[in-house]
UniProtKB/TrEMBL annotation:
Taxonomy, superkingdom: Bacteria
Record's keyword terms, sorted: Signal
Originating organism: Labilithrix luteola
Gene3D superfamilies xrefs: 1.10.530.10
Residues annotated as signal peptide: 1-29
Name of the featured protein: Uncharacterized protein
Record SUPFAM superfamilies: Lysozyme-like
Amino acid sequence: MSLRLRTPATIVTVVALALPACGSGDAGATDAVENVGRVSSALYSLPPAPVPFTPQPCQDAGQCDAVDTAIRAMSAKYKLPRWFYYAVVNRESTFDPNSWTNYNGLIGLGLTQLTESTHTGVPYPMNLLSPNPVTDPADPSYLDYQQWLYDKGVDYFCNSSQIPAAQRVCNWIDMRNVTPLSTQNDWSDPVKNLDRYSSAYAAPAYNLFRTRYPGESATTTLRRVAYYWRYGIFEEGFPNYDPSDYLPGEYGYDQYASDYRSAVEAQDGVWNGLVAIPQSTFTWMFYGDYQGKDMWHSTDSNGGVVAGGGYSLRTGYLQTTHRFGNGPNSVKVTAYGGTAGGVAPIMRVVVGDQTLGSVQVTGTSSSETGYFFYYSPSTPTTQPIRVVFDNGGAVGTQIRSLTVMSVMAWRQ
C-alpha cells in the first residue's frame, strides 16, 4: 500500500500476438506458477494459455510477461477477475514487481505493496514458523499470533455488538490458508507477491465484506476490497474518506478498473461475483461452487436461465449433489426474488431429508443476497442439496419468482 505518485498509464490495448508464458530470466516466477496449486491442488488448476491481452506497454517485455502470467494464475486460483488485479497492481506499483516505497516509515513492497510482517512475514505472517493456531500463553509465538488475529479483526467481526448479528462473520481468515513465503525477497516475485496478497487479504476480505455489507453489488465489494487495502479494514469512511485519492482521479483505482474491465470481459466473460472461500488444506475436498443454471431443475419449475449464470423458478426446486465433510458445514445460497401482491418468495433449503431452514428472499436482481444455512453430519457424506420455492404464484400480472444464482458449500 503506497501513496507515491504514479506515472500516466497507457490505455488498454488488444494486441495481435499472445503473451509468452513468462519473461526470460524470471525462473522464480515460472516455478511459482507451475506450483500455484500446491497448497490446495484439489480445487485449483493452472490457468489456460494466455489470450491476446496486455494491460499496458512496458520497457522490460520479459518483466511484463511475468506479471501478466502471474495475474492470470491468481485470477484462476482465487476467482477474482483479472481486471481487478490489473487495477490494483497499476494503482499500487504501476506493474513494477521491484517497486518499494516508504511512507512515514511504512514500507510497501512489490506489485501490491505488501506491508509489515502482517503481510510480508516469512514463512508465515508475523514471521511465525507455523500457521497453526497458538492458544497456549506459554508458547513463545502466542503474542505474535494473537497480534495477527487482532490486526485482522477476527474477534471483532465475529462478536462486536456494533455489527448487526446477521452481518457478523467468525473466522473470516485463517493463517493456515495464507500462502507461505520462502525468503525475505519473495515479495519481488510476481506470483508470490500476488499469492500472499490474495490469500492473506483480498479473497477472504471479499467474502467478509459480502456478508458485512449485504445488498451492494459484487463490483462495489471489489472496490471496497481495494479501498480497505489502502486504509485498513477498520476504516468506516468508504468511499468518501479518501485523502490520498486512492479511488478517484486519472491514476485512481476506479479509472484503471474502468480501463481494463471491458477488455478483460470481452475475453474472459462477465465475472460471476463468486470468489474462492478459503479453507484449510485439509478441507478443500469438501468445497463446492454450483451455479444455478447448472443445477437440476424439477419439471414444474417453469423458469429459465438468467444473466450471470442463475436460474429463475416460478415453482418447483433446483438440486445438486455435494460431498460434505464431517462436522460443521456451511451452505450459502445466493438468490433474489420477484414479489407478487406484495409477498416475497420463500426459499427452503434441504440437505438429504433434513430441512436446514426457510427464508423470505427480499433481494432484487440489482441486490442479490447470500443466505447461509448449516449442516453437521457426524461422518463425511454425499447428499443432495435442494433449493425449494414454496410459494410460487401470481397476482394479476405480477408473477412471484425465485432466482438462484449459486449454491456454495464448504466445511468450516
